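User: For my dataset I need records formatted as: sequence, then structure tokens, nothing else. Please produce one.
Assistant:
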Amino acid sequence: MGIKACILNLDGVIVDTVRYHYVAWRRLANELGFDFSETQHETLRGLSRMESMEEVLRWGQVYMTEAEKLHWADVKNNWYLACLLQMQPEEVLPGVLSFLQNLQQTGMLAAVASGSRNAKAVIHTLQLEPYVKLVMDGSTYRKPKPDPDCYLQTASALHLPASACLVFEDMPLGIEAARRGGFPTIGVGLKADLSHANLTISGFEDLTLAGLLEQMEFSLSQSV
């Protein structure tokens, strides 16, 4: 297949930080005099920080100036970072570490592309830096998914074409972004939710690069 690199999204693929975002956003809402549910919070997945801020304020029917929004977004992020600093390497999702180690052993490049501006801090806290060549975060690019900008910039930084980079995503918007950029895609989660991915896996447990590429080639041959 000519695959030279694996590009992984962070949240939902490598680690689940959604609960920490929920704690921080809910704390912000409570400070402003309202509350929201975990189900509501799920709808923020895939949105940028400021897009999430707009949605949270809409839930609470709170008006803010742009300056106030930026201030509270920074406050929320500081609360979120405080949660991240308490994370442990054991919070890496099952099978991810062994898969990254397998990539390293086989000479395959591994990169992380995330909309989170805290991606580098998360990778450092989880002690995954030895296995990840590059981390591209939300401070590196401006166009959110489903625009393919994050993945195209990551491939460019690796000096590889999109066709040589296998993208791992857990969200439909991420799969769409990768497909728009010309990347082969692996959906991580339920096939029903990620039907546009070239291949869907439930997780990384007992997964090796060789086994994955074999599944990928079979899947592509069936779709021809």
